[in-house]
Task: inverse folding
């Protein structure tokens, strides 16, 4: 553990390396069971020749007490992760969905929001019967059916493994465990790190055992920096994996410099930048230019508009029409959705005018191209070595 002086304050605080963190913080009790489940899941899909992506999703908490009454949290609902997981599944990937407990989940996310409550889909059959029968409102089946089919398909193929975390400590232990379980996948494994992970935590030695009592004036909390685990992940836990991290900022000017800095520091393949208020309709892919001509063009944007010799940047943006449709759906809920149009589209079961266009569809499509290239690059290395 090293001791550093924070630039912004005169107080001295500790900063944990990843090794110190894992050696000193308590591992979650369910870690062994989750690790075993992940290993079995990976072994099955390696055997079936299927690629596997780890999707992390939702925010992490920082408990203020061990018997936790109060905790710090963040805004993330898990929309990015849950939505992307569905598109990865539709593209034939198996998905380890490592999510904040009770955040949005693939498939059920369509009905867990208050603007589209699940109970509004259902009706009791007017004919008396015992037991009473419940059915789905006719005009709602259009929407439900593709979701239900995709959900059943993932269940019957066993392509979705859902594992929950709550605290930032649980998240970090689980991330390491998942990466180690995914090692046998080599380049067939992808890491899609969309969770909003706290940058600060309170080490267990300084966390109050019981509820912090009031009545002693203001509460001062000193938090330590969470170790940057992308480096050991890229270097040791998943050296062959295709690693995509996300960078959220509220000042859009910082997005690209911060993303470049992350690529330089951690040496992974791709950072997807997003600004808080625009994250549902625009993101920027920032990548190192190992071979610019290999990178697939990104749709709907002034691609590579601020690229340098070392990095490329490419924006994905939803069209104005798609944005408008999403807004009307968000504001009016299910009532305004056009009920007459349903166009199954290729392997993507709910792409069509009936559903709003989701930016995750384009993100996943772009990543598939890059993952293909990453796998092909590995094959080329192997044949050069022979
Ligand atoms: O979960 P959500 O859809 O509300 O938000 C997604 C997001 C903004 C958390 C994600 O896209 C992201 O940027 N995650 C990384 C955040 C960060 O550590 O900078």
Result:
């Amino acid at each position: 553990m090293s001791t550093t002086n924070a630039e912004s304050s005169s107080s001295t605080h500790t900063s944990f390396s990843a090794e110190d963190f894992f050696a000193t913080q308590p591992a979650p009790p369910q870690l062994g069971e989750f690790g075993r489940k992940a290993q079995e899941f990976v072994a099955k899909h390696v055997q079936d020749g299927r690629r596997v992506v780890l999707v992390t999703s939702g925010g992490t908490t920082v408990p203020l007490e061990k018997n936790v009454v109060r905790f710090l949290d963040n805004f993330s609902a898990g929309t990015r992760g849950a939505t992307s997981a569905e598109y990865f599944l539709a593209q034939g990937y198996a998905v380890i969905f490592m999510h904040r407990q009770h955040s949005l989940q693939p498939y059920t996310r369509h009905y867990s929001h208050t603007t589209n409550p699940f109970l509004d889909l259902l009706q009791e059959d007017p004919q008396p019967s015992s037991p009473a029968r419940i059915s789905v409102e006719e005009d709602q089946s259009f929407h439900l059916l593709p979701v239900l089919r995709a959900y059943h398909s993932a269940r019957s193929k066993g392509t979705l493994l859902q594992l929950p975390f709550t605290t930032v400590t649980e998240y970090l232990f689980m991330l390491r465990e998942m990466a180690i379980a995914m090692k046998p996948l080599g380049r067939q494994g992808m890491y899609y790190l969309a969770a909003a992970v706290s940058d600060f935590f309170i080490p267990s030695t300084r966390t109050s055992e019981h509820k912090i009592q009031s009545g002693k004036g203001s509460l001062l909390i000193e938090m330590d920096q969470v170790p940057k685990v992308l480096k050991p992940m890229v270097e040791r836990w998943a050296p062959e994996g295709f690693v995509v991290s996300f960078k959220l900022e509220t000042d859009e000017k910082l997005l690209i410099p911060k993303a470049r800095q992350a690529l330089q520091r951690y040496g992974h393949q791709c950072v997807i930048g997003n600004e808080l208020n625009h994250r549902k309709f625009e993101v920027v892919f920032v990548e190192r230019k190992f071979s610019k001509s290999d990178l697939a063009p990104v749709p709907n944007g002034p691609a590579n508009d601020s690229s340098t010799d070392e990095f490329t940047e490419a924006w994905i943006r939803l069209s104005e029409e798609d944005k408008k449709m999403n807004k009307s759906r968000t504001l009016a809920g299910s009532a305004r959705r056009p009920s007459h149009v349903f166009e199954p589209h290729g392997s993507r079961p709910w792409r069509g005018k009936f559903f709003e266009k989701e930016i995750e569809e384009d993100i996943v499509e772009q990543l598939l191209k890059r993952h293909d290239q990453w796998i092909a690059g590995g094959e080329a290395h192997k044949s050069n070595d022979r």
Q: What stands out?
A: Residues 76-80, 194, 196-197, 246-248, 274, 279 surround PAZ (CB under 6 Å). The longest strand covers residues 242-249. Confidence is low (pLDDT under 50) at residues 2-11, 292-303, 330-353.
